[in-house]
């Protein structure tokens, strides 16, 4: 019987403790790949809790040297290679380009 009276009080305490604590992700549409923490683990701001994959066309942002900007055109085909898979090339194309030295052209995988 005493347990029945304590449970609602404990629930109220836990609810007030959790108020204002929000876990948010910048991923609006995607797939959960991995849960990086378990129930009961302590977490701190900035600690990764989950790993998501964004749905849709993958995008790559490049910080190019100013000397190379003139050789880049929208619609231009490209090949992307990652250090993790040096023998694999991924077909891509340039989808946009900014025109200054602070440019961050982006390439979409095709």
Attribute tags:
four-stranded antiparallel beta sheet, 110 residues, single chain, two-stranded antiparallel ribbon, 1 helix, alpha+beta
3D architecture notes:
By secondary structure, this protein is of the alpha+beta class. The protein is built from one helix and six strands; from the N terminus they run H-E-E-E-E-E-E. A hairpin with a 2-residue loop joins strand 4 (77-82) and strand 5 (85-96). The protein is elongated.
Overall pLDDT metric? 75
Helix content: 10-25%
Order of the strands making up the biggest sheet: 3-6-5-4
Low-confidence stretches: 100-105
Radius of gyration: 23 Å
- Report the biggest beta sheet as strand number plus sense, adding barrel if it closes: 4 strands, antiparallel
What is the count of β-strands? 6
Q: Percent of residues in beta strands?
A: 25-35%
Structural class: alpha+beta
- Tell me the series of helices and strands, N- to C-terminal: HEEEEEE
Shape: elongated
Distinct helical segment count: 1
Task: For the record, give the distance between the C-alpha atoms at the N and C termini, rounded to a whole number.
Answer: 65 Å
């Amino acid at each position: 019987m005493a347990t029945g009276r304590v449970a609602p009080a404990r629930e109220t305490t836990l609810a007030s403790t959790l108020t204002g604590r929000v876990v948010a992700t910048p991923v609006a549409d995607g797939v959960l790949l991995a849960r990086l923490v378990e129930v009961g683990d302590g977490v701190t701001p900035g600690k990764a809790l989950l790993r998501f994959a964004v749905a849709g066309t993958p995008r790559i942002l490049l910080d190019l040297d100013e000397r190379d900007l003139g050789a880049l055109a929208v619609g231009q085909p490209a090949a992307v290679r990652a250090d993790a898979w040096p023998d694999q090339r991924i077909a891509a194309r340039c989808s946009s380009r900014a025109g200054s030295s602070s440019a961050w052209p982006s390439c979409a995988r095709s």
